[in-house]
Amino acid sequence: MKNGFFLGKRVWVVAFAALLLSAGAGIPAAASTAAEIEMLLETQALTYAQVSRFVLDAADQGAFADPAQAFAFVQERNWLPRRASAEAPATLNGVALLLVQSFDLGGGLMFSLTRSAHFAYRELEHIGVIHGRRGQNQQVSGDILLYMTGRILGHLEAEQDRLALAGTRRERRAAARLEAQRLALAAQIYAHLEEQEIEDVFVDITEEGITIRLSDIQFLADSAEIPASEQEKLDEIAEILRGIPGRPSLRITGHTALAGTPAGRLLVSAERAQAVADYMVLLGVRAPGEIQTAGYGSERPIASNATTEGMALNRRVEIMILEN
C-alpha cells in the first residue's frame, strides 16, 4: 500500500472488509459486494461525494445511489468543511468531521464548542480511529476510509457493550440495596412482634414487598366486626406501619378456609379485609382511600384445609407493604 497508513498491510484491510461483509454489518449497500469493496480499496483518492455516499450508508443515515445527492445531504447539514466540494479529493480532517457527525460520536468538549474538522480529527485520534503521525490534510483512499469506518463501528459496539454491562451492574446494585432494605425492615417488624409477644402473626418477603400475615384471625360470628383481642394485635401492627418512612402503599387482603359457599367465602373475606383497612385508617396509619383491599375467599390457601391447623392458617388477613 503506497501511503503506508495504519498497519501498512493491504491484505489485512481486505480481510477486515471481508469479515465485516460476512457479518452483514458495517459495509453499506453502496459497497455490498466483494467486487465493489475491491474497487473501493483500489481508489487512492476518494472524492467528498464518494465518501459521503459510503459514510451515510454505513451510519444508517440514508442510502444514496448518486454520490452527488449524498454530498448535498451532508453539505446541507454542515457535516463537511465549508470549502469542500463534491469532486474535490477528501482529506482526513474533512472525513473525520463527516464521521463524527454521521455516527453522532459526540466529539468531546472542544468539538461541541467549535464543530470544527480539526477537533473532529482529534476526537478520532482519541478513540483510536486515527493513529500514527498523519497530516490532517492527507488525502483519503478507499482502504483508509474502510478502516476508519470499521474502527468506528467496533468502537460503537464496544461502547454499547460497556453501557449494557454498566446498566446490568447498576441494576444488580439497586436490587441488592432493595433486598437489604427489605430484610432490614422485615427484621425490625419481626423483632417488634416478638418483643410484644404477639402470636399467630408472621412476616414474609415477597416479590411485591413485605407481608404481615395474621393467621387464625378471629371475627365475631358471621360478621366482619373485629373483636377486642384482635384489635390489640392490629394496634401493634399499626404502630409498626406508622413508623415506616416514605409512607409506602398498603394492600390488605382477606382469606378464608374451605367452609361455606364460594360466593359467601369471597364476600366475607372482602368484608374482613375492608374492616382491617378501616381500623388502620381509624388508627391514623393511612388516610381513607389510601389502602387497597381485596377478598380471595379460599382461592389462595397456604396450608391444607383437611386439618384444623391448616384451616386456621388459611383463615387469615395479610397486610402487604408494597414497593413505591
Order of helices and strands: HHHHHHHHEEHEHEHE
What is the total tally of β strands?
Answer: 5
Approximate shape = rod-shaped
| Lateral arrangement of strands in the main beta sheet | 1-2-5-3-4
Q: Using only CA atoms, what is the Rg?
A: 35 Å
Average of pLDDT: 82
Number of domains: 2
Q: What helical percentage do the residues reach? A: 40-55%
> So how many helices?
11
Largest beta-sheet details: 5 strands, mixed
What structural class should be given to the helix and strand makeup? alpha+beta
Question: Can you put this structure into words, describing what you see?
Answer:
The chain is of the alpha+beta class and 324 residues long. It has two domains: 10-164, no CATH class; 196-322, 2-Layer Sandwich (60s Ribosomal Protein L30, Chain: A), CATH 3.30.1330.60. The chain contains eleven helices and five strands. It has helices spanning 10-23, 34-42, 48-58, 67-76, 92-102, 108-114, 117-126, 142-195, 228-242, 262-282, 308-314, and strands spanning 201-205, 209-215, 250-255, 291-295, 316-322. Helix 1 packs antiparallel against helix 2, helix 2 packs across helix 8 (142-195) and helix 5 (92-102) packs across helix 7. It is rod-shaped.
Précis, in short:
This protein is an alpha+beta fold and 324 residues long.
SSE order and pairing:
Blueprint: H1 10-23, H2 34-42, H3 48-58, H4 67-76, H5 92-102, H6 108-114, H7 117-126, H8 142-195, E1 201-205, E2 209-215, H9 228-242, E3 250-255, H10 262-282, E4 291-295, H11 308-314, E5 316-322
Parallel strand pairs: 3-4
Antiparallel strand pairs: 1-2, 2-5, 3-5
Helix pairs in contact: 1-2, 1-8, 2-8, 3-4, 3-5, 5-7, 6-7
